Amino acid sequence: MIKKIGVFTSGGDAPGMNAAIRAVVRTAAFYEREVVGIRHGFQGLIDNDIVPLDSKSVRNILARGGTILKSARCMDFHTKEGRAKAYENLKNAEVDALVCIGGNGSFTGLTTFYKEFGIPCVGLPGTIDNDLFGTDFTLGYDTATNTVVDCVDNLRDTASSHNRLFFVEVMGRDSGFIALRTAVATGAMGVILPEENATFDELSNSIERANINKKTSNIVIVSEGNKLGTPYEIAAQVRQKFPEMDIKVTILGHLQRGGKPSCYDRVLASKLGVEAVEALLNGKTDIMVGVVENKTVHTFLGQAIQNSAPINHELMRISKILSI
Ligand code: F6P
Asked: Domain 141-258, CATH 3.40.50.460 — does that match?
C-alpha cells in the first residue's frame, strides 16, 4: 500500500516541470496520499533534502518556468554507496514510491535504483530535447521550440535588413528534434542534424541556390551534436568558399530552457502528473508515462532510455522542399 510519494526533478530543467509537480501533489491529495518533494534531484535523496508538499504549497506554480524543487546532475548516485544512502533516507522518511521528472540520464539512475531496492517508481519525461522513446512529446519541448522560433524570427528581421546569413545553434545534446521542428517553423534554408550525415557540399549547394534566387536573408539551424562541426567552424568554412557573404553566428544556449510553459506543456504536465500517480496506485512500477498519438501510454524505463526516439523523416523532407 502506497501512503507517501516522493517527487523530484532531475537533469536539465524544462518548462512544465512545475506544472508536473503540481499535478503529482494534487493527484496524491485527491487520493488522500502524502507527498514529499526531494530537492536537487538525486543529490537531495543522498543529502536527505526532503520537504513536505501539500495542495497549498503548489499554488501558483503552474505557469512558472524552471523547477521549485531545483535540479541537478548527480555523480554520487552513480555509485552503489550513494544509492544505498538514498534508500536509507527514503526508508527513514517513510517514502513508499517515487515520481522522477527528468530525461535519459535520470531514468537510467531511476531504473537501477528500482532494481536494487524495489521502491516503486515512475518516470515522467521532462526534457526540452524530446529524445525519449515512448512519448511523442517530452515536457518542455513545445515551449523550448516556441522560444527558438521567437528568437529566430527576430534574427530574420535583422538578417534581411543586412542581407546576412545566420548560423543559429540550438540545443538537443545529441538529438535533432528541436532543430528540425524549428527549421520548418522558421523557414530555414538548411538544418544540420546529429541524425544525418550532412556534408559541406550539400550546404554550399543550398547557399548557391539561395544566391541565385537572390534571397535577402538566410537562416541555417545547427543542432548541438551534429557531425559537421560547431556553428563557428561551419561558418568559417562557408566564409572561405563565399568570401563576399556577410555571415553571423548566434548560439541560443540556455535561453531555450527558461520561460513559462506553453499551453501545450501545461496540459501535458497535468495529464502525465495524474497518470504517474494513478499508475503507482495501480501497482505499476519501473515505467515512464508518455503520450503517443494523444493517448497516455506506459513504457518500461529500460526501453525508454535504450530505444532511440526516431527523427521525423517526413518533416525533414518537408523542410528540404520548402527551403528552395
Ligand atoms: O538535456 C537538456 C540540455 O539542455 C541539452 O539540450 C543540452 O545539451 C544540455 O542540457 C546542457 O546541459 P547543462 O545545462 O548542464 O550545460
From this structure: yes
